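Why do we bother with a discrete structure alphabet at all? Because it lets us treat a fold like text: something you can write down, compare, and reason about line by line. To make this less abstract, here is a complete entry for Helix-turn-helix domain-containing protein. Read it the way you would read a sentence in a foreign language you are learning: slowly, and without expecting to understand everything at once.
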Amino acid sequence: MFLKQKIQNKKLQLLSIPQTARLLNVKRETIEMWLQDPEVPRLFVGRSKQVRLPQKQFFEYLDSRAKDWPQYQ
């Protein structure tokens, strides 16, 4: 419920990898491992092509994966 309240904000919020890790209380390496999946929504910003995760789409992706997690093992 906490995460759903956070993503109900209408404007697009982009999260860095460290921000996402803190928000989900996981290690940065976990987020980087998830990013190996090409289906993870992400944007590349700036000349350095830093990864940003669109908060709403990323949490929707996690929610859909969590429902069917045995098939991804």
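What the structure line is telling us, in plain words: The beta strands are 14-15, 43-45, 50-54. The chain has a mean pLDDT of 83.
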